[in-house]
Amino acid sequence: MSMNTTSPPPLIDVRNVSKSFGKKLVLNKINFAMPAPSIYVLKGANGVGKSVFLKCLLQYERIDAGIIEIAGNPLSDRISLRSNTFFISSDHQQFIELLTPNEFFQFLKEIYMIPFERIEQVSHLAEDLNVLTELNTLFSKLSFGTKKKIQFIAAMLICPKLLICDEIYEGLDTDAVLFIQQAYQHRKLQGMGTLLTTHIRDYGEEVADLIFELFNNGIHVVKENIT
Amino acid sequence: MNLSAFRKLLSIAYDDRSSNVTKQAIIDFCSLGFLMSLILLGIKNFGIATTMEYYIGIHLALNLILLFFTAAVLKSIPTLSKFVGSMPIKPAAYFYKVYLVSSLKFFILLEYLIAALILLWNDTSLKTVIIFVILLEAIRFLRLYFEFLFGFLKSLPGLSIWFSILFFSCSALLYVLNKKQMLSLSIFQYSPSVAAYIIIILTILGLLTGPLLAAQQMNQFSRNAMLYFYFTSKLMKLSTRILYLNKHTKAMLTTHITRLLRNSDYMGRIIRIFTVVTLLSCFNDVVLAPFFNMPKAAFVDIPYMICLVTFLTLQLEYPIFKNSYLDEFPITTRKINLIIDLIDAYILVLFLIFLMLIEFATGNNAIQMTGVIFLSFFSFYFISRSISIPQKKLSNINKLFYYFQFFILSIPLKIVMDNVPASKWHVHLTVFFACLSLYCIRRKIFIRKRD
């Protein structure tokens, strides 16, 4: 699958990317492009390589061949990559585990130089997501769903051009799912992009511009929502 | 549950294979033969009393070695407790049955029986023989008790920290007492009867408190380390206030310190480094310095020991933890490495100051010497940091390769430290700047430019 765009450059531009672990080929010459204001959903069975693909996009996994550019910059420009992206992982929260959500937000505020008015949103977001009382609890002590919500609030603080969410809907209550989907749409209106993976049927589909599926080591369009 | 059923349960828990039984029997038979030969040889050459004393000494040493290995692995008792905890067994029954199962073994009973017969054959009174066997058994029991105690410490939040603090406190106390000449480390001067009383009192305490330790481990629930958490939060806020750095660096530094303080593995390693160095310092003062009659030279080795142990344990064993997560944020690699180097140096300097204070308090040192020690410490530190270690798990061969790099680079420095007197401070200062240059150059060359 390839999408040719001229100007501005796509938010994600993947060209002929391959990745294998030993003899096992996971991604085979993948082509993928995602414009800035968009919501894309990536589906696929367990073990087909969805998480690997996302990690390759953010250079948490090295690719064997091909080119990936995020917001027009190559992955080798690490500072640009990290400034423009944020990853909500399904199982990898090594950094936050030993901090409280408030300490984590404070860290993000200084590192990303987040303006004061956006910091003020933390309490509103925490209230909407029903995690206000958990902001001073050690992250490792939080429940699975609450951990996802805290990561989501962090993403909203940073406001990255590209937000990548790996299985974000797992462990979330229905209200939180609706709230997060509205946030995706709001991000799109502001010109930002969101790419997410999900196992849960129907979740994310109604807000997605394009739904892909990863199978046979390649990415294929499944459904296009014309709005 | 009777004892044989419990024995079967243990074999399931430990996944004991039947093939190990023969192997174990051969080992037991050989060790029994060896011990009995020693007794007979001892009686012939030293007499009954000395032989019994040495036999108990060997028995104690063997059990300490076994305890060391068990404590180092720290797997058996916690795993077993978790397994037994899911069954309807009371903690007291669990504790005493583990003890009985490990003690009521054919070869152990045979050992006691033969030892008792030999002693009785050589006109030893029955009372003495009974006390002798009780002492041997008490030592065996204490080993098991300490395994339970270590298992309990492991179940605490911040497990490595508590475990390490215990060892560090003991060794630091030993060091201070030794420096103050309040305690002699020569154990041979104490009467055997004092040691016997201590062992028996500890055994009684162990028999009473053992079931409580077992109960703690069987009912494993999540314990919240609120006090430690509160302390680290306060420390983080305090460090934010006192540091006059830009906001970006300050955020990195304070967050990194907080994470390190709350990471029990990391802190455990730091405290264990201190413990090893303290014990080595004790060894320096007690054994090396009097024997070679060169206390100053022996003391200069402390910075080397600190850096060597730090290098081996932190840099070679724990490289992944250091900065892989910081890679997730838009922070330059150069800054990440600088922050990590600074924090490690800060922690080690605190420890060095602790040792220096003791030296000054005991009036053993001069200011000029102190300056040289600080210079040598930082020189060794720069050498250890100048070796670029990849952010991945290292094989033992790789570790050996990096250790040799450190060793070879530090040889010239050690020669200078051992042979140039403290009065020639300009030589030490030159060496210090040479090491600093090496650190800067190698950091610049070898650290991959990822940004």
Automatic annotation (TrEMBL), chain A:
It comes from the Bacteria. It holds the Pfam family ABC_tran. Residues 12-226 form the ABC transporter domain. GO terms for molecular function: ATP binding; ATP hydrolysis activity. Keywords: ATP-binding, Nucleotide-binding, Transport. PANTHER family: ABC TRANSPORTER ATP-BINDING PROTEIN ALBC-RELATED (PTHR42939). This is ABC-2 type transport system ATP-binding protein. It comes from Paenibacillus algorifonticola.
UniProtKB/TrEMBL annotation, chain B:
The keyword Membrane applies. Keywords: Membrane, Transmembrane, Transmembrane helix. The keyword rRNA-binding does not apply. This is Uncharacterized protein. The chain crosses the membrane at residues 25-43, 55-74, 94-121, 128-146, 158-178, 190-213, 270-292, 298-318, 338-360, 366-388, 400-417, 423-441.
